[in-house]
Amino acid sequence: MTGKKIIAFLTLVMVLGLQVTTLDARQIDDISCSEAIVLLVPCVPFLTGLGQPTPSTSCCEGAQNLNQKADTTQVRRDVCECLKGASMKFGVNSDKTKQLPQLCNISLSFSIDPSIDCNT
Asked: Which of the residues 53, 54, 62, 77 has an alpha carbon 20 to 30 A from that of 10?
C-alpha cells in the first residue's frame, strides 16, 4: 500500500471505530470500550492483513498498554466482549489475532480468538 492509501485506510478505521464505540460506549471499569479500541487502532492494518506481516511498534505498545489496564478478571472479560464485537465489524483475520500476543511479547494464559467465550 502507498502512504496515502494507508493514511486513508487508517482514517476510515478511526471513523468506523468512533461509530462503533458510540454505539457501545459503556465503561469497562477503568477503561471504556472506545479506549480499548483506540489503543488497538494501530494494529488494524496487521490484524486485517492489509499491512506489514508483523505488527508495528505502536500496535505492540497499544496492545501492551491495554493488557496492563485490563488487570482484573472482570475487566478482561469486558474488554474481550468489546473487542469481539469490534473484530467482527473490522473484518479482523483470526490467525493474525492469535499471533499478536507472541509478536508483541505479551504473555497471556489464553489464546486470542474471535470465537472465544469471554466468560471462561
From this structure: 77
Domains of the chain: 31-119 (1.10.110.10)
User: Cβ neighbours of residue 24 under 8 Å, at least 6 residues apart?
Assistant: 33, 34, 82, 85
Q: For residue 32, what are the β-bridge partners?
A: 27
* Neighbouring residues of 22: CB distance < 8 A, sequence distance ≥ 6: 34
Per-residue pLDDT of the chain (120 residues), as tens digits, is: 555 544 445 444 554 454 444 444 444 457 889 999 999 999 999 999 998 899 999 999 999 999 999 888 899 899 999 998 888 888 899 999 999 999 999 988 677 777 889 998
42: burial class by Cβ within 10 Å (0-12, 13-18, 19+)?
buried
Question: SS3 of 89, please?
Answer: helix
- Which whole-number Å values give the CA distances from 85 to 24, 39, 46, 57, in the listed order? 9, 15, 18, 24
**In which residue are the cell numbers 493474525 written?**
96
